[in-house]
Amino acid sequence: xxxxxNTLATVPKKYLLHCAINMMSSQPSPSTLVFYSKSADKKxxxxxxxxxxxxxDFLDLSRVPNWRKVLSNFHYEPFEWDGMxxxxxxxxxxxAKFGPSNYDKFQEAVREKSDDLEQDAGITSQRLRKWKIxxxxxxSEWNAKSRIVMKSIAEAKYSQSEVGREVLxxxxxxKLLHFLPRSSVKYEHFIHxxxxxxxxxxxxxxxx
Length: 208
Known about the structure:
By secondary structure, the protein is mainly alpha-helical. 50% of the residues lie in helices and 9% in strands. The protein folds into two domains: 1-77 and 165-208, no CATH class; 81-160, no CATH class. The protein has helices spanning 2-7, 13-24, 59-62, 67-71, 89-96, 103-112, 117-127, 136-160, 162-170, 191-203, and strands at residues 32-35, 79-81, 84-86, 175-179, 187-189. The strands form two sheets. Strands 1-4-5 form a three-stranded mixed sheet. It has a two-stranded antiparallel ribbon with strand order 2-3. A hairpin with a 7-residue loop joins strand 4 and strand 5.
């Protein structure tokens, strides 16, 4: 929370207050926004599976090119987490599964198997999710903490990314769904992003 609050100082005050007024003065939005790494650059509400509630137009969001891709874990924008620099959230998340002692080696594997790191870091990291076989106990431990780790990594990325903060705040109170193209479960509710967004908004009244 402190990291999120401290980095709000890098966002223009006028924009922050605009977002705060819009979010705090309205009822919870019934709007739903859907995104993934290959989302088309359509206006909010025009994407597959999206809905707009009454009065929601997301004008600020629509001004950001490819805003849906920014919300994806594959979005390339280097940031620091747990003492290392990562290309995207997915790279840090998959590396975390194998522990800090394997961070360097996992990053080497990602770079060796990526033709273009900016384009490939996310998908390559996902493909390396079984880079090392975990024991039953290790897998159980990872499953128990993976959501906490994901939120921690996302907090680091969005606290350091100006465009990331702009996009996340501009989603208002919308429900954020990640499209899963090759899964029987069509969408994953990215509750952690909504929580980070809420924490940013909670910090806004204290922003000077």
